[in-house]
Amino acid sequence: MIVALQQFLTEHPHLLVITGAGCSTDSGIPDYRDQAGAWKRTKPILYQEFMRSNHVRQRYWTRSYLGWVPFNQAMPNSAHHALASLEAQGRITHLVTQNVDGLHQKAGSQQVIDLHGNLENLVCQSCGEKESRRWMQERLASLNPGIDDLTAALAPDGDADLETDFSRMIVPDCPICGGILKPDVVFYGEQVPRARIEAVYTALHQADALLVAGTSLMVFSAFQFIREATRLNKPIVAVNQGKTRADELFTLKLEQPVGETLAALASSTF
């Protein structure tokens, strides 16, 4: 099957790539869905719940505080390095990722569009003030003595598996206006910024074809670009283990490990 993928790249040398959680699982970051595309766990909180409920924010930030350290320490794996190598070879024009871990950039990819944002950044929902994740971690630790005594396993998107009494958790407000601070990522129920969507559409129109890697495409924010590629008659190749929302739209699909397959492709001679 790698030969078919090599042939695809020979015929379509300038790719737009769309990646998802399957690219980061080998880095120790869990994903949300199984190979049938079904949820493995409870769905993430909605933006509306986060904004209206102090209890939801207390729960979110307690768990996120604990999940941040292993999440932030995760290192790029062979999939990330392979995609960075293919970009350096001139094979990839842009890479669109649904992940919020920054691992593509850590691996060396330059033309990255973080479709859903990046967990390293915070933004006030009232005044737009930007803060770093390091600032939030330090404030949470200072305001909540004993939080470091809690233990929890890493969950998707820097969350952690923990159920406890969150009511005593003190969550810092925006230091400028006292508003609600939220990770600068797109929560469920929240819209992707229009400028980001338009940047992907522009890149798609310029590309010869699409490469989908490690995503079920169940979220519409990414699936919409598959529909547009189909409308434009641009070929689509996918490397993903398990069902996706777009299986019938792919020109070629390889149900193989993402990292291993992309690494073999990046080391090929075309």
How would you characterize this protein structure?
- The chain is an alpha/beta fold and 270 residues long.
- The chain has 2 domains: 150 residues, TPP-binding domain (Rossmann fold, 3-Layer(aba) Sandwich); 104 residues, SIR2/SIRT2 'Small Domain' (2-Layer Sandwich).
- The strands form 3 sheets. The chain has a 6-stranded parallel beta sheet, with helices on both faces. A 3-stranded antiparallel beta sheet has the order 5-4-8.
- A hairpin with a 5-residue loop joins strand 4 and strand 5.
- It is elongated and about 60 Å long.
- The model has no long low-confidence stretch (mean pLDDT 94).
- Poorly predicted ranges: none
Number of DSSP helices?
9
CATH topology-level name of the largest domain: Rossmann fold
- The residue-averaged pLDDT reads 94
Rounded to an integer, what's the Rg over CA atoms? 19 Å
Which percent band covers the strand fraction? 15-25%
Question: Can you identify the CATH class of the largest domain?
Answer: Alpha Beta
How helix-rich are the residues, as a percent range? Answer: 25-40%
Largest sheet geometry: 6 strands, parallel
The arrangement of helices and strands along the chain is: HEHHHEHEEEHEEEHEHEEH
What is the CATH-assigned architecture of the largest domain? Answer: 3-Layer(aba) Sandwich
Quick take:
By secondary structure, the chain is α/β, with parallel strands linked by helices. The chain is built from nine helices and eleven strands.
